[in-house]
Amino acid sequence: MLLVGCAEDLSTLHPAGPVAAAVADLWWGMLVGGTIIFVFVMALLAAAFRRGGHGRDGERVWLAGLGLAFPLTVLAALLVWGLMLGERFLVAGKPEATRVQAEARQWAWTFRYPGTDRAPTEDVLFIPAGQPVEIEITSVDVIHSFWVPRLAGKLDAIPGRTNILGLQADSAGEYRGLGAEFSGIGYLGHSFTLRALDPADWTTFLAGDTP
Amino acid sequence: MNALRRHRELSRIWASDRGWRRPFTTVNHSDLGRMFMLAAFFFFGVGGILAMMIRAQLATPHSAFMEAEVYNQIFTMHGTVMMFLFAIPLFEGLAVYLLPKMLGTRDLAFPRLTAYGFWCYVFGGTMLLLSLLAGVAPDGGWFMYPPLSSTLGSPGINPDFWLLGITFVEISAMAAAVELTVSILKIRAPGMSLDRMPIFAWYALVTSLMILTGFPPLILGSILLELERAFGLPFFQADLGGDSLLWQHLFWLFGHPEVYIIFLPAAGVISTILPVMARTPLLGYSWVVAGAVALGFLSFGLWVHHMFTTGIPHLGLALFSAASTLVAVPTAIQVFAWIGTLWKGRPEMHMPMLWIVAFFATFVIGGLTGVMVAIVPFNWQAHDTTFIVAHLHYVLVGGFVFPMLAALYYWLPQVGGRKRFFKLGKTAFWLIFLGFHGTFLLLHWSGLMGQRRRIPTYDAGSGWELINLASSISAFVMAIGFALVVIDIATNLLVSVRGSRNPWGAASLEWAMPTPPPSYNFASLPLIHGRDPLWSDPKIGVAIAKGEGFLGAPRGNQREILTVSTARGTPEAMVILPGNTALPVVMSAVTGLFFAGFLFKLYWLPPIAVVLVAALALKWAWSLGHRADQGPQPVGRDTTLPLAAERPGAPAWWGSVFLLLANATLFGSLLFGYAFLWTIAPGWPPPRYLDWMPLLPLLVLAGAGLASPAIRLAERRAAPHVGLGVAAVGQMLLLASALWLLAAAPDPTGHAYGATVAVIAGYAALHAALALLLTGYCLARLRSGFVSQARCTEIRIARLWIDYAGFVGIVAMAACLAPGLLQ
User: Fold this and answer.
1) How far is residue B670's CA from residue B764's CA, in Å, rounded to a whole number?
2) Which stretches make up the Cytochrome oxidase subunit II copper A binding domain (chain A) (predicted)?
3) Which candidate among B230, B339, B435, B496 keeps its CA 20 to 30 Å from the CA of B587?
């Protein structure tokens, strides 16, 4: 691997765009909620060994209450949160979004910039910073997956299909990207770099120069 | 007859052969259950060694221990071995060993089938093991996604070992599932109605039904992928009308239920052991049963959550996300039923209970992270990182391995008849428990930090080094713990002093027999009045030994058991089981030739193997039955019952019903795949659809229309020879129509449409041929005097297969011609 990065440059918990940031928030929320539920269940379990058997059944409390009503409430709330988040990301075809194309193969990436005269780039994807971008992802051989952990989740590159991923980098800079679906011998090195450019640099780039 | 003489007589009748022949000819469920479990533990050791190699490789950055080429084989085989050669067979072994004892009977419904399944497992597993030793093991991940696993990504023999070896092993899962389903529904102690069944039997029933409906999609997928690899039928190639996503759907349609197929038996073990440890009946028996059944159903509705990153349409995502979270509800019901049981009883902290506590502490975390990954946006980040590695090990080790260790310590006194002597178990417990959490807890974190699964190494400075080092050290601590368990169990079985019969004070019938258990289990079959027979009547073991139950008077060389009515458990009939035979091991070896032929591309071999298997199967079936009606038989307690073969609803008939359920699921999966390709795959429509063939429907309808009424005629014995003869003619018409369809199919290598039509037509032809064979068999049995008005189970079974072949013929024709008509 060419890039020897710092400890945080693949971290989903060090987001650099609105999509990844929302998922990181979701994670912290679920971690807190999950920890509370875990401690609660373990406390119930420990208490069973502490107290002498009452011999009382309490079937309604245990089964209808804790078994049925409790998870249904928690899950419904979580599901709504997750779906609303997903809704926000999935709105493809935003008119203002910049479209780029990512084509995966064993073990490299080709990126194209439709609607411009810009020549394709290999293993480096350029996008404008601070605005929504949509990436059309496909593959020419086996299944791969497009992943820039600090910007958004994964989306698979599948032969014969095109998937569209929306993301945004808040500020200009370099972000590491990975092929994130096992693809054989060269899987480890199947990575790329995403460079988000300031408006001026982006114009320069589209004109054919690499800033 | 006194108890000792009864014991001697029954031992003589039910004994397996002595000496070296014993493992090869035994059909006894205790023998086979132990052999199954031993083999499963052996493969657990193999999988464990592979795991240690993975952790050694990942302990430090830039490890030079293994090349990617080797590493890919190691992690693929680790998953494959643990899933297919350890977890499922261990359930099968446990259920085969325990169920007849818990259900108060002497053996399972089809003893030879148990043996056949066992040998298919051993031979198939050996095939995979050899590939590993030869360095050509599967290396595309245990999920085998094409095109990587197809000829494009893997031209070598590696994936063939997986596709053929696993399918071979799956025969044992299907055999065990049919066997267990029929046994649980029909072969129980008199009086044991469904609501008096031990809770483990409910779980085993749900699990078996899930195997019957969950494994066929995988078997179909493996067949299709092998056809693509061997003969170029492009089911998964996008440019020829296939779709790689079809494999993912078929694989996860199996793969998600698989998780619950593994968890449910463990939950059954907990529901059995935990109340005994708490000295009180299980809280909410019917809630728990409902929870297990609900899990079984729901688990078929969440396979897509393994595919959230494949670009599934939005509505689909929402639906499957909801279903995936919903599955937590029946799990919660069971977890709180168990904790509630502990609250109402007086729990004691013996070894089995210790492992159950470890289960709670681990599985609850796995369940919670499971809900997290069911939330789609989070899934997109966590997918294919070590977060998932951690999650799945919390679920599978916490939810299966720990309960199985509880089971091991709980039933060891029953299997070996000895007291626990050395106390290594507790040390082992702490090493495994702490080692496990040390290995996997922090891997959640490294996954969120961007560590992908399945990478052979990583860079220094990635921020994952400490986590991975700690994980690897803990993994070796855990391995030492497992080694101690082996030593603990071995010393216990070999040198401990004899123990008492029911050391835990349990309620279920496996504790109402001498330990280690005799070959016949029960000297007489007890009459059951409640859910906890040993708690309501602690002396029931004595009554059984004194012959106070059913079948307490052994006769001749007959291995006798009873069948009961499914719901109420009223005795219905007597079954005489077959004795020791090497037929199962021979037949599974010949079955192995079939797979070996494909593996080594010796395509003349499989047809020979099919003919040999068919011949052996006929010999197998021919050996049963009588040439004269036997009439009502005395079964003790002043009762007489007919032989099962002399009344409707014999176990063999039920066996065919459930085999057909699995078979129909396979056919349904094939039609699903066809519809999926037709509507969703990118490369459609094909160059040419089949033209309308006006004669074909006539031929199919004539075939089915002749065969089905004719076999009913034969069954009613109005004119059996004529009926069977006409049925045979009908099958020939169906066979001819299927072969015609096969010949008319467009080039199967040119487009997925032609390939699918060829497979559908081939399936129809196979079933017409099978029904024809069965009809011929019935004619031969009729001529030899094995069939009479009363003894017509074989014709009833033939009727099932003939009706199914007719149904398949009609559906296959309609499916193949439909696209051309609708064009």
Assistant:
1) 12
2) 95-208
3) B230
